[in-house]
Amino acid sequence: MKTFNTNRLISIDDLTKNDIDILYATTKEFLKVLARPVKKVPALKDLTIANLFFEDSTRTRISFELAQKRLSADIINFSSGNSSVKKGETLNDTIQNLIKMKIDMIVVRHKVSGTAHFVSKKTGIPVINAGDGTNEHPTQALLDLFTLWERGLKSEEINLALIGDIQHSRVAGSSEKLWQKLNIRYKKFGPNTVARRFSPGDRGSGDLDNFNVLYNLRIQKERQEKELIPSVQEYHNSFGIRFEDLKPHQLVMHPGPINRGVEIDSQTADSTNSIILDQVEMGVALRMAVIYLLGQNKKGI
Ligand code: ASP
């Protein structure tokens, strides 16, 4: 039987195609669990997982926590706002303390790119990157593709437009690696100031008509050193998804949080073209699969 070969998920680079197959097959199994009246399995009842969120999060934090609870793991939640980080403790000291308390796995989010890698190197236990700066957010990329497959689109049928602040998006960082690994067709659109390093195309009217998936990214104002778009209204006029331009077959995605009226109008966000909430739903099953597979490796089963 082929095995899941990695003991961490810092980057899409950690996964072979075989790992991705195993991960998606396991996600399907957990979707079945989540459809039952009792949405819980005892699989990881002997593991303790620390969720270290040094940066704000709503969906990702709750999704990881739910996934862990549904696998019966014990959980420690840490956010930098109410920790000794405020008193000047270094990241390394914080994690060394956790290791001494016999934590089995770490989920980490941080505004600095490379933090998850650092934590992994310093601890030697399974680490999952829940978003590091502008670098990567692998579980988001994985759950997004799973959502498209669950919608019945095969890999070779996907023709995706990636639109927005690609340069500062860690979701784009992981997604591009995943799509390239699996030969998913995509093209990038965005203002030159926030999509420059990827030489995207300008978006003119009708340019998106031939794409069956429109993947929108948020303007990452917190990661821009200066204003890189003239105004949100201008951005919306040039790159925002407007319901009147949508084709019936087009699926609209977004990693959240959405800014209504900026990258997407409300009518689109609330339309049946939008699968944004499906992404959220699939996220729990996908994260259960990641945690379960890393947990099994950790237990040496
Ligand atoms: N929630 C995603 C992230 O943490 C996307 C975003 O914030 O725009 O990267």
Characterization of this structure:
The chain has 301 residues and is an alpha/beta fold. The protein is built from ten helices and eight strands. The strands form two sheets. Strands 2-1-3-4 form a four-stranded parallel sheet. Helix 4 links the parallel strand 3 (105-110) and strand 4. The protein binds aspartic acid. Aspartic acid binds next to helix 6. Aspartic acid is lined by residues 131, 137, 170-171, 218, 255-256.
**How many strand units?**
8
* Percentage of β-strand residues: 5-15%
Element pattern in H and E: HEHEHEHEHEHEHEHEHH
Attached small molecules: aspartic acid
Structural class: alpha/beta
Query: What global shape is seen?
Result: globular
As a percent range, the share of helical residues equals 25-40%
The N- to C-terminal Cα distance equals: 13 Å
Spatial arrangement of strands, main beta sheet: 2-1-3-4
What low-confidence regions span 5 or more consecutive residues with pLDDT below 50?
A: 196-203
Give the radius of gyration. Answer: 19 Å
Oligomeric state as shown: single chain
Number of helices: 10
Largest sheet: 4 strands, parallel
How much is the average pLDDT? Answer: 90
